[in-house]
Amino acid sequence: MPNLRGSLRIVLAVVLLVVIGLTMYQIGVSVWANHQYNSACEALERYDFDQASSYLDRYLSLRPNNPDVRFLAAQVARRRGNFDEALRLLTRARS
Fold first, then answer.
1. Fold of domain 2-94
2. pLDDT in tens, 15-54
3. Sign of CA dihedral 56, 40, 51, 36
4. From residue 20, how far is each of 2, 31, 41, 43, 50 by CA, in Å?
5. Three-state DSSP string of the chain
6. Domain locations in the chain as residue ranges
7. Distance CA 3, CA 60 (A)
8. Overall pTM > 0.70
């Protein structure tokens, strides 16, 4: 019996480490995505549409299903004069 308990403890420890690792990964991705969004907002305050577009592209690579940010990216693309990209982003934001 002692050997079974030791094995069970090892399995539980490994499972716990995996859960902690996955949780930390999700937190890291969320923090990075929020940083990209906040940086895009700061660039928009400076009317730096190229930099804002870059930050929004990075955000959307992490959170592609956020229609509000996709709409914002479409507005930025329009302000940059990239109307095809703006239309693509608007179409995707609606669906």
1. 1.25.40
2. 999 999 999 999 999 999 999 999 999 999 999 999 999 9
3. negative
4. 27, 16, 32, 34, 37
5. CHHHHHHHHHHHHHHHHHHHHHHHHHHHHHHHHHHHHHHHHHHHHCCCHHHHHHHHHHHHHHCCCCHHHHHHHHHHHHHCCCHHHHHHHHHHHHC
6. 2-94
7. 49
8. yes
